[in-house]
Amino acid sequence: MDRFLLFAQICLGALGIVGIAVASPELWDEQTMRVISALVMTIIVARIPIDVVIKLSPFAYISLLVLLVLVLFFGVSPESSNSQRWLLVGGFTFQPSEMMKVAVIAYLTAFFYNHMGNWQIWRPMLVIGLAAGLIVLEPDFSTAAFLFVLAFAIMLAAGTTLIRLVSISLAAVLIAGALVSGYVDDGSYVTKRFNSWKELMINGSDAATDPNLSFQAQRAIAALKEAGFLGLGTSGKVGVPEADTDMIAIAIAQALGFIGVFILFAMYFTIAGRGLKIASVLEGPGSLLAAGATIYICGQASLNLLVASGLFPITGVPLPFVSYGLNSLLSVGIAMGFIHAAYRQAKAQGVII
Predict the structure, then answer these.
(1) 193, 199 in Cβ contact below 8 A?
(2) 26 near 278, Cβ under 8 Å?
(3) Which residues does residue 92 pair with via DSSP β-bridges, in sequence order?
(4) For residue 75, what is the enclosing H or E element?
């Protein structure tokens, strides 16, 4: 396994535990076990040969697609949420949409590798459109949108021509739109969140159209200003909603100050650098698998940190390896395992990284 990637994952997990200790002290021991579980998942996936990942990817995708349908009928949601994104299985809540991210990475990798440029656009457009449409119905617009961006980036990395790229993207949007046409309306919470954020950025907090929606961004900005260089320690209370999940970067900033934020950014830059380097020295499915996994981890981290800093509307996307939530931790753990598997393949081929 790549020691730099392993070090980065452990550091991010430790920062997550610190953030949970500040935001929800009663959960820090549970978060510790979840971080360890994600690390074990990474180690397991890293030992799976890439050709096996390729063979299993269609079955994983179809299975998760079925689970996304089941969520619409049998899904559960937290008391404070109107979303229905989880399946309750023996006391464990499973979120298929999180696992669908790594399934799409593996499936598209297998698809482009197996067809070597000789393929029709209907298969990838169905893969993306059906998955995104079912996720929107939960409703979870941010995850569906991120899935589109992730798939777009993978197709770009695969060398898809511009015409095919645009055709697949538009067709996938139409498929997803057909699934949700009876659900989405002009007064959706997504529109309200965006308008509230826009007015907050342009005119300040007093002009926000919905104080409840802009409060999270306002408090995040205030907390960052108060943290300073060394932070306030772990004894204070974070005045930001969802400080243990979507806004955990603010809890880390409050506890460790600029130093904590610097380490957070440095670890994601390490993952980006190593992941893309491994992808660049390989050929075939290993290259695309490593690139897709890197884009997933670092792209989602960038989105979360933009939201936490108030530079992007609230999305509800967790911070990889850091936020509280077992499904997210396992998903990014699998993605990191993909990169390690590609690294092992590169070493087996005698490639110096």
Answers:
(1) no
(2) no
(3) 89
(4) none
Rounded CA gap, 295 and 289, in Å? 10
Q: Strand pairing partners for 87?
A: 94
Residue 139, preceding peptide bond in cis (omega within 30° of 0): yes
Closest-CA residue to 331 (of 125, 145, 104, 51): 104
pLDDT in tens, 60-111: 999 999 999 999 888 887 665 667 788 888 778 899 999 999 999 999 888 8
Structure tokens at 349: 């081929």
What is the separation, in whole angstroms, between the first and last Cα of the chain?
A: 12
Cβ pair 303, 186 in contact under 8 A: no
Q: How far apart (Å, rounded) are the C-alpha atoms in residues 219 and 223?
A: 6
Nearest partner of 138 among 108, 174, 176, judged by Cα: 176
Q: Indicate yes or no: pTM above 0.70.
A: yes
In the chain, beta strands by DSSP E: 87-89, 92-94
- The whole-angstrom separation of Cα 131 and Cα 244 is 27
Side chain identity at residue 166, one-letter code = V
